[in-house]
Amino acid sequence: MTADTQATDTSDKPDYDSPWKEALERFFPEFLALLFPAIHAQIDWSVAPVFLDKELQQIGGNSPRGRRHADKLVRVRAKDGSDLYVLIHVEVQGDAESDFNARMFLYQTRLRDRYQTDVVSLAVLTDTSPSFRPKSFRHARWGCGIVFRFPVVKLLDYAEPERWAELEASDNVFALVVMAQIRAKVTYDAETLKRWKFRLMRLMYERGHERALIEEVLRLIDWMIRLPKELEAEFRQELYAYEEQYRMPYVTTFEQAGIQKGEAAILMRQFARKFGTDSAETYRPRIESAEPEQLEAWSERILNAETPETIFH
């Protein structure tokens, strides 16, 4: 596999809408805090948000065929005590959508008609066209007019060095999802994409989150950034090696001492069975002072060793 292999030469087409839908539902507060902080600040988070997937499907039946969207409708409680609906639309298609503004307006009117309450429509654009920046729907004729505005976040803006640095420095786990989406869209060289994927995975580990949370976010990154089979195999090997190394910082000094003592005892028993108790006692000082990694290597060598000396060289 050469360095100029294109990232688009994957065995499966990237599935962006599914990971976005899952990410929005799993990390909804983090999503708003990162991309729409002013709205996040107005929500009463002591009341759990309610996701209304079936209701959204019922009002979205006339969406353009063939388009890829990640839509979520969420009922939330505002800090003023009122209930309202937040419609999140993520445009995951690779190209710009010409009727985007009209569709945002259509969803807004259908939802307001159905629920007779406030609906806040938010848009996230994942395309790579710098000029595609819809933010309102306007229509006017014979003195009758409509102007509908909605907040929009363009992920491509975060690819700029200053904004990217903000994402890397953020302790918000959703920043990793955003970075994965950006790199999946703007990186065309597969080798480079593999390096970015590993970097994002490593960032997740370095932030010291709980293992369960790490696994959730890593799965989303893995879902968004797809590599050709050969590079994916290489990536898995590199990640496995890193994970093996990364486990050590979580082990306290006392736990490390216990691991070393246990592995030394196992090796001593192996030694005594194979070469006799006297021989094992001869090497006890060396075994009991060795690091766990060295003890593990010696335990493997002893299986085929013909003499004690061959274990330590």
UniProtKB/TrEMBL annotation:
Q: What is this protein called?
A: DUF4351 domain-containing protein
Every DUF4351 domain range: 256-307
| Organism superkingdom | Bacteria
UniProt cross-references to InterPro entries, sorted A to Z: DUF4351
What species does this protein belong to?
Thiorhodovibrio winogradskyi
